[in-house]
Write a structure and sequence with these properties.
233 residues; alpha+beta; Arc Repressor Mutant, subunit A; Nonspecific Lipid-transfer Protein, Chain A; five-stranded mixed β-sheet; three-stranded antiparallel β-sheet; 8 strands
Length: 233
């Protein structure tokens, strides 16, 4: 796909030959939410030149990561989506996001939270090692919008599903009626998850409120690191 190559007989090297170019993984990130037009992708990456986006999409199509289809008339336009091979990058994108959490500042006017990224942000914050085998549904009523987290129940012993495949987060148009609910802001969840704020401090101050049965709210606390002490200094 790219003209540049590490030229090493190594799977990590070959993978980076394909996805290591600037912007490529961010294009994958946006396509993980579903098919997008060129203009949709540009809106999610305002710092990327239009011709460079076109070049990356062509390269990704040649590599079998992206497919290009044409919408019906009138005003037919190209629509881009991930192939099955491209979908395999979902856990890679989530893992990169989790790695980047300690380096993330709060949104600003110059670097706002991107529209439509709330589901991905919540999925990134989840501590997958704390996923309950029985599964759970949690609604989020946050300053940044509404979303629903569904943890799919674990399969029977011997047929266990990989953790990242059990986490599904979808946007909702308004507050819904799950038995377990988180209210507050994405920023407060991020602070707790990173240890900038303890879970107790977040709850006592009202930055985050939890509603639901004791067992389910305990799961929420484990999933987002509420029991971890805040870092000081």
């Amino acid at each position: 796909m790219p003209k540049r190559s590490y030229k090493q007989f190594c799977p990590a090297s070959r993978a980076l030959d394909l996805i290591g170019e600037r912007w490529t993984l961010l294009i994958v990130r946006d396509l993980l939410r579903g098919p997008r037009r060129h203009t949709d992708l540009r809106a999610g990456m305002p710092g990327m030149a239009s011709n460079l986006l076109g070049q990356r999409l062509t390269e990704m199509e040649e590599a079998g990561l992206v497919r290009r289809e044409t919408t019906g008339e009138p005003n037919a336009r190209a629509l881009y989506s991930l192939t099955e091979r491209g979908e395999e990058l979902r856990p890679v994108v989530l893992a990169v996001g989790r790695f980047g959490l300690p380096y993330l500042d709060m949104p600003t006017d110059l670097q706002p939270m991107l529209d439509g990224m709330l589901p991905e942000a919540i999925a990134t914050l989840v501590l997958v090692e704390e996923l309950p085998d029985s599964g759970i549904v949690i609604d989020f009523d946050l300053d940044e919008g509404f979303a629903r987290l569904t943890v799919v129940p674990q399969a029977a012993p011997g047929r266990r599903v990989p953790a990242l495949e059990r986490v599904e987060v979808s946007p909702t148009p308004a507050a819904t009626n799950a038995a377990t609910r988180v209210t507050g802001s994405l920023g407060a969840l991020l602070w707790v998850r990173r240890g900038d704020l303890s879970g107790k401090e977040a709850l006592d101050s009202g930055a985050i409120t939890l509603a639901g049965g004791r067992g389910d709210t305990a799961v929420v606390k484990r999933l987002f690191g509420f029991s971890r002490p805040a870092r000081r200094g």
